[in-house]
Fold this protein.
Amino acid sequence: MASFSFFSFFLLSILLSFSPVLCTNSEGNALHVLRTKLFDPKNVLQSWDPTLVNPCTWFHVTCDSNNHVIRLDLGNSNISGSLGSELGELKHLQYLELYWNNIEGKIPKELGNLKNLVSMDLYGNKFEGEIPKSFSKLKALRFLRLNNNRLSGPIPRELTTLSNLKVFNVSHNNLCGTIPVDGPFGSFPIDSFEDNRLNGPELQGLAAYDFGC
Ligand SMILES: *[C@@H]1O[C@H](CO)[C@@H](O)[C@H](O)[C@H]1NC(C)=O
Ligand SMILES: *[C@@H]1O[C@H](CO)[C@@H](O)[C@H](O)[C@H]1NC(C)=O
């Protein structure tokens, strides 16, 4: 019996030593998964050590007093690769700053789960595909800058319900259809929309948003 328990303990130790070393913290895990998808020639993610108990000491990551991640600051970092659904797990995130990099692929619809997000800056990358309709769930959002990418399709009408939106920029993409006029869209300047295939403001009462899209 004694030798059996000793043996089980011995086997367990071996198994544990081979299991992947991961953060016990779900937000740290999400960021670690993100890191595996990015190419990082300037090593800006070098301090992202997944064996730490949480990611709050990692460079470019900011936490609140409860050790929840509230900022990700990776603008101008020369990173490439793509984003996945993992970013949707950073439930407390307020600032997602990924501008002026070389990130490609689609914008994950799971970013719509970041209900505390105040600012999403994805401008100056190589994002393609459509602007996710799920962004209409980002009720705290004030700044949404997606300019200078390769986005296509219409501006989702659902975004007109974002009553806190103050700055919206989708200039220099490949968007089509008409520009919404409702809600916060009544006050965005025309240079927020320039250099696309957009058809000018939507006509009153005409649901023409996929016209020419
Ligand atoms: C960052 O990217 C720019 C433009 O692609 C390039 O000129 C520069 O050499 C890169 N810097 C590093 C450190 O990789
Ligand atoms: C949108 O971005 C473009 C390109 O950077 C810039 O020229 C323009 O002033 C911006 N407009 C607004 C309203 O932020």
User: Anything to note?
Assistant: The radius of gyration is 21 Å. The chain has one domain: 21-211.
